[in-house]
Amino acid sequence: MDIVSKEVVASNGVDKVKVYGLKTGKLAVKKSAHSTRRPGLLSTMISFRDSEYGDWLPVWSWLIVHPEGTFLVDTGLSSDVNQLGYFKKLDFVSKYYFEKQMKFDISRKEEIDYQLKKVGVEPELISKIILTHLHIDHVGGMKHFPNIPILVNEIEWKTKDGAFPVLFPSGMNIQPLKLESRYESLEKCHYLTESKDLIMFHTPGHTRGHTSIALISNGNRMYLFGGDVAYSADRLINKTFSATVKNYKENIVSCKKIIDLAKKMKIVFLPTHDIGNIERLENNDEINVY
Q1: What's the CATH number for 3-283?
Q2: Cβ atoms of 132 and 61 closer than 8 Å
Q3: pLDDT (tens digit, 9 = 90+) per residue, 178-211?
Q4: What is the CA angle 239-245-248, rounded to 5?
């Protein structure tokens, strides 16, 4: 299944919000890079010797049809990764990593523009795109939205950890945001709607500017689009990360903040690469912190 949907009652108890998960292909990394006790550059380099790949990981983007607009969280992979020489502009190590240490599986008809049309939304009808971070499996579909505002944490835009602007399409309407508000115990937030029920907040670690996006619905429930703060709900609880984490200690703190928040409210955790997202969204399965 490459599309999953859920209609929820908005935080005001009246309006309806529709959430869609749209899968844009899948990827795999070396098995030792996927789960390591010591994330970082050294673990990434050591994984180059590994001959075995981990399981295929889905690449989810999230469409939120809200009374205040139609929002897209991340744009997924692009089938351009299949083109010979696509990574030739990158530095030697990065080019080697993408060509020899990762596998991609996406066709042109799995890209985000096609997936949007399957649920009756033309790309030009998107109000805003919200990026959790700038890695290639989150920004690959930007090319389909040349005039749409693309919101990204200002820190992420400045640091660009593991990002490759040379691969970005030209002419994008990038709008860096300062995260200066607060929600509950979460600092460095930005409210994306007037109703303050769609929130970007800083969850650094995977990158220095990584963010997660929260949709607050009626009944004190949060749908948390977690990007790569953790690849799955289990890995969030166990604080297990991939080798490519920029700052291991910061990532642990980010996960702890989410877990602590889950003790106060019901959180449905929906990261980018979790095969369990379909069942979790359909059933409102919440983070179990006890």
Answers
A1: 3.60.15.10
A2: no
A3: 999 999 888 899 999 999 999 999 999 999 999 9
A4: 55
